[in-house]
Amino acid sequence: MRTRPWVERTFPVATNHRGRKVGVWLGVVLTAAVVLWTGLTTLSSWIARGGLSPQRRDLLWMLAGLLLTFAAGLFDDYRPARTRGLVRQLAMLARGRVTSGVVKLVAIAAASFLSVWMLGGRGFRLALGVPLVAGSANLWNLLDVVPGRALKWFLPAAVGLGVAATGTGYDTLAAAAVGAAIPALVLDLREYAMLGDAGANVLGFIIGLGLFTWLATPWLAAVLAAILLLHVLAETVTLSRLIEAVPPLRWLDHLGRVRDSSAHDSGLDG
Predict the structure, then answer these.
(1) Mean of the pLDDT values across residues 230-254?
(2) How far apart are CA 38 and CA 33, in angstroms?
(3) Cα–Cα separations (whole angstroms), residue 134 to 50, 57, 59, 202, 206
(4) Does residue 25 lie within any of the structural domains?
(5) Is 4 among the domain residues?
(6) Is 259 within the bounds of a domain?
(7) Which residue, among 264, 129, 142, 136, has the nearest Cα to 197 in the 3D structure?
(8) Domain that holds residue 78
(9) Angle at 62 between CA 148 and CA 122, to 5 degrees
(10) Which helix (H) or strand (E) holds 194?
(11) Would you call 24 exposed, middle or buried from its count of C-beta atoms within 10 A (0-12, 13-18, 19+)?
(12) What sign does the CA torsion over 102, 107, 113, 119 have?
């Protein structure tokens, strides 16, 4: 499927493993669908109740952080040349060069702080919650190096967290995201479009919010440690090699793809 000229003029374009240009617009559509659904349901709730419930207020703060994360990812998607690798980008920052990935990292950290603070995170829970949500956002960017991978890991995690967090504002966000992610997975697998950082970071941000909403503080520390370990592995062994080394994960990873593609983990930029 050739990329239409209007797509190339409007969205970033990347080349897939078959040498074809693919529009990086899937994250924009996915995020728009989530915002539209949560906005409409919140408006309906406000009209029916004559005001917003605490759960709906929490949902709006989640949505505010999500939109800031989306904007940060979209900013990075539009950069013509990007430095890959978290360690490399931090090393460049130490030498006085600010990359687009570092700008994105700061924006996502700010988005995570905003949402976690407004969801009641204070003290130790705040200190754990902010890097957990931001780290989750970047982790999904690390997963988004082959068609469908980020969405395949997102869907079961979002469904589980949405069910676990029933009765909070998060369950509405998770339901909207799952509904948008299912058709997005088909488009991603068929390589009609790519998520880009705007989409992958949003997926991870949603998962991070679910973990923060559902888990007790000691478990936040354990999950944060796991996220940090996965970042270390991505910078060394690479997540793709780990997935290829485990048969069930390799099967899931290849399921539905047009054909195999080589994948390399990429630090901040997936």
Answers:
(1) 95
(2) 9
(3) 34, 21, 18, 10, 10
(4) yes
(5) no
(6) no
(7) 142
(8) 18-254
(9) 120
(10) none
(11) buried
(12) negative
Distance of alpha carbon 101 from alpha carbon 143, whole angstroms: 16
pTM of the full predicted structure?
A: 0.90
Query: CA-CA distance, 145 to 258, in Å (whole number)?
Result: 15
Report residue 53 as tokens. Answer: 């419930």
Q: Report yes or no on 1 lying in a domain.
A: no
* 3 state DSSP class of 82: coil
Decide: 111 and 65 in contact? Cβ < 8 Å.
yes
Considering only the C-alpha atoms of the chain, give the largest distance between any 2 of them, rounded to a whole number of Å.
Answer: 56
Count of structural domains, the chain? 1
Tokens of 80: 């013509």
Instruction: Classify the C-alpha dihedral 185-266-80-199 as positive or negative.
Output: positive
Q: Provide the token pair at 48.
A: 């029916």
Give the C-alpha separation, 5 to 208, whole Å: 36
The tens digit of pLDDT for each residue in 134-164 reads 999 999 999 999 999 999 999 999 999 999 9
